[in-house]
Amino acid sequence: MADPAARWHDNVPGPVYIDDSCIICSMCADLAPEHFRMSDDEDHDICYRQPTTPEGWAAVREAADACPTESIGLDGQGTRPTR
């Protein structure tokens, strides 16, 4: 589960973020490129645009569910299935 206290500083403000457990697999950017990308430093992925539509939220939730390190935080905007 993502840790809000460990969110990367370069995520845009809002409920969706990536924390410092990210391993730069970029699966999030592959699944939701409108919301996630590699950081400018190229050492982690970030949320660069918060979702505002049902489709955007669906893509972000799909990315969060697929994240192998559970590094994507949704701050109460969606739940992850128990594994």
Any chance you could write out the topology, listing elements then pairs?
Elements: E1 17-18, H1 27-31, E2 36-38, E3 45-47, H2 54-66, E4 72-73
Explain what this protein looks like in three dimensions.
By secondary structure, the protein is α+β, with helices and mostly antiparallel strands. It has a single domain (4-73), classed as 2-Layer Sandwich (Alpha-Beta Plaits). 22% of the residues lie in helices and 12% in strands. It has helices at residues 27-31, 54-66; strands spanning 17-18, 36-38, 45-47, 72-73. The chain has a two-stranded antiparallel ribbon with strand order 1-4. A two-stranded antiparallel sheet has the order 2-3. A hairpin with a 6-residue loop joins β2 and β3 (45-47). The longest helix is centred in the last third of the chain and has 13 residues, at 54-66.
Summarize the structure.
This protein has 2 helices and 4 strands, in the order βαββαβ. With about 80 residues, it is of the alpha+beta class. The chain has a two-stranded antiparallel sheet with strand order 1-4.
* SSE succession: EHEEHE
Q: Quick one: CATH class? A: Alpha Beta
| Rounded Rg | 11 Å
Strand order of the largest sheet: 1-4
Low-confidence stretches: 79-83
Main sheet makeup: 2 strands, antiparallel
For the secondary structure, the number of strands is: 4
Fraction of helical residues = 10-25%
Give the class from helix and strand content and strand pairing.
alpha+beta
Compute the separation of the termini in Å. Answer: 11 Å
**CATH topology, which one?**
Alpha-Beta Plaits
Shape designation = globular
Strand content: 5-15%
Q: What count of structural domains?
A: 1
Which architecture would the CATH scheme give at its second level? 2-Layer Sandwich
